[in-house]
Amino acid sequence: MKNTVYSRSEYLAEIRRENIRIKTVQLLSVVAVLAGWELAAQRGLIDAFIVSSPVRMVKTFVQMARSDLAVHVLYTVGETLTGFLLGVAAGFFIAAGLWFSPFLNRVFAPFLVVLNSLPKIALGPVIIVWAGAGISAIITMAVAISLIVTVMELTHGFYATDSGLLTTVKSFGATRWESFYKIVLPCNIPVLFQSMKVNIGLSLVGVIAGEFLVSKAGLGYLIVYAGQVFRMDLVMMSVVLLGFIAFAMYSAVSRLEKAVVKFINHI
Known about the structure:
Elements lengths: L1 H42 L4 H4 L2 H12 L3 H32 L1 H16 L6 H8 L3 H25 L3 H9 L4 H12 L1 H25 L5 H10 L3 H35 L1
Helix pairs in contact: 3-12, 4-5, 4-7, 4-10, 4-11, 5-7, 6-7, 7-10, 8-9, 10-11, 10-12, 11-12
């Protein structure tokens, strides 16, 4: 018994050490890139006016933080979360409907493929006319980009559920609805969260695309404005800030997935 406990503790300790090594290498990689970027700008190896530099971006960030940067960040994050939640909810119900009706799935499957390959930014002017020139158009753009991916991934996951399990519960008299919420849905929790991880980034892309077209606030608006007045420090600072926002939202979805899986395992 003691050997078993010792082996398990050693295994967990090795996992912790491996995680520490990975995070250390990741941190050092970021520091190395930033240091090389700053050094190249200082030595004139790159044009700091065009590509900026970490020090100049930090100064721009401090300057903007004292004015209205928080407002622009809140606009972008709020629009992204709204579009993300609407896209996931609508995609889930559409995918469930296609699972309940195999006939409709066969009918609409090729159309979903076409819609997924269609560049949504091309519909920007149409969306502005339909939804109006404001936040509604930006959120619609985010939903348009993330919705189809959710539908396709969940539909594929639903139909890939173990047929043996479905046959077993059906033999016990389970209805299609009971098969869905007792077998199909629990088996596809990982698929749902995987689609959410993809869609949180796609929603941010849709929001920025919408803010490029029609917006009076948001990081996309800042990027367009800064590009027009040749403030490349502000452009690069906004792009880096978008990266941090995308990472934070992805991490939040990952933590939610762990919490949900842990809760399900304890039921």
